[in-house]
Amino acid sequence: MIDFSIPSDVAALRDEIRAFVVEEIVPYETDPRLTQHGPTDDLRAELVERARKRGLLTFQAPRRLGGREPSHVEQAVLYEAAGWSTLGPVALNCAAPDEGNMYLLAKIADEEQTAAYLQPVIDGWQRSVFAMTEPDGAGSDPAQLSTTAEFDGDGYTINGRKWLITGATGAKTWIIMADVPPNPHGPHGPTLFLCGGDETGIVIERVMSTMDRNYVEGHGVVRFEGLRLPKSALLGEVGNALRYAQMRLAPARLTHCMRWLGAAERAQAIAVEHARTRTAFGKPIGEHQGVSFMLADNEIALQQCRLAIWWACWRLDQGEKGRHESSMVKAAVSEELFRVADRCVQVLGGIGISDETPVAMIFRDIRAFRLYDGPTEVHKHAIARQVLRRGGGHR
Ligand SMILES: Cc1cc2nc3c(=O)[nH]c(=O)nc-3n(C[C@H](O)[C@H](O)[C@H](O)COP(=O)(O)OP(=O)(O)OC[C@H]3O[C@@H](n4cnc5c(N)ncnc54)[C@H](O)[C@@H]3O)c2cc1C
């Protein structure tokens, strides 16, 4: 039986996180270090130190690595609280891509890799990237992977070009997806590699100009130019990159939904306050039916999204892979929250598109969310394939 009652210790942690974000992090939303390319590393470091002092940093990490290891449903409650400010997850070290990378590395990195590349990320000292998407290769279809990792028996030589690589500038933990071509020395296929960011052969061409503003150091275009890695840089087994990526993506999609739910709630709170205090045609605008319906639609949508997220999390907590469930929830929630944010902009009138409030920023960031971790159409494509395979009417 599904039971969504929130244990008192989780509720207490949620309240602590919310208070921390409201009191200490919201004031940074107008800091000039929150740039067109996201928060700078310098701003991030300052925010992380605040969370460290409050004992809240990386609360989601496994216990064996210093975290509190909440269940997926518990994470839903906590990440929503963190998302009240788009800088909240950055401060708490539960923002993408680090959060998903930490999850994956905790599952498949060996002891040495954990010490060198995962623990410093969990401790907030360094950031990580996941480099998969390519201008002419992997994207919605990762099987189009064109970056290669030639194996000569001793080590791997990686060549290729990636883009939209979040946080590439300054990141010290790199997870790289590349294809090992058939070779006489061992297995082949799409493979993950783990290395440091200062390796010769990692060239950051530029940081892209994008409409979102929430990811530390923005999104980079990166070239791997004869990047030479030893066999010990293999992350997991050769040929398993797509399986590992899926392992990372099911929960990572949901944590995106949780954080953006928190941000959309904030937008709604701002829109509601505006609707109560701004007048037009002789009364507060919230008393005009056109506005009240937008606010009501938002309230309904927010609760639907919350329940959908909790349901998929519950399935993961039962030990299921949740690939189909997380696809459905990601597609539905990203589209629904986008409509919520859009209505909030509308209720605010002209200031809705300005930076006088964080609503415009939330709107732009949620727009981007409809694309990453699988565009809506790709999820629908996968959901439809599954439904056609097994027939309708099964739950
Ligand atoms: C903010 C942001 C951050 C990102 N960070 C990272 C990162 O850190 N690392 C990384 O590797 N990548 C990252 N990405 C890239 C992201 O994973 C890709 O944008 C996504 O996988 C889609 O790939 P693509 O952009 O190449 O789009 P394409 O594959 O070119 O697809 C374009 C469009 O085609 C349509 N389409 C594709 N397939 C189908 C289908 N089967 N059925 C119907 N329609 C379809 C969809 O509408 C889709 O939006 C990020 C993207 C964004 C926007």
The quaternary state of the protein chains shown equals single chain
CATH homologous superfamily identity of the largest domain: Butyryl-CoA Dehydrogenase, subunit A, domain 3
Largest sheet: 4 strands, mixed
Main sheet strand line-up:
3-6-7-10
Q: Roughly how many Å apart are the termini?
A: 14 Å
Structural class given helices, strands, pairing?
Answer: alpha+beta
The number of distinct β-strands equals 12
Mean pLDDT: 97
Order of helices and strands: HEEHHHHHEEEEEEEEHEEHHHH
Radius of gyration: 21 Å
The distinct ligands, each listed once, are: flavin-adenine dinucleotide
CATH architecture of the largest domain: Up-down Bundle
Q: How much strand?
A: 15-25%
Query: Which fold name fills CATH's third level, the topology of the largest domain?
Result: Butyryl-CoA Dehydrogenase, subunit A, domain 3
Task: Estimate the global geometry from the Cα principal axes.
Answer: globular
Total count of domains: 3
Please outline what is shown here.
Keywords: FAD, Flavoprotein, Oxidoreductase. The protein has 11 helices and 12 strands.
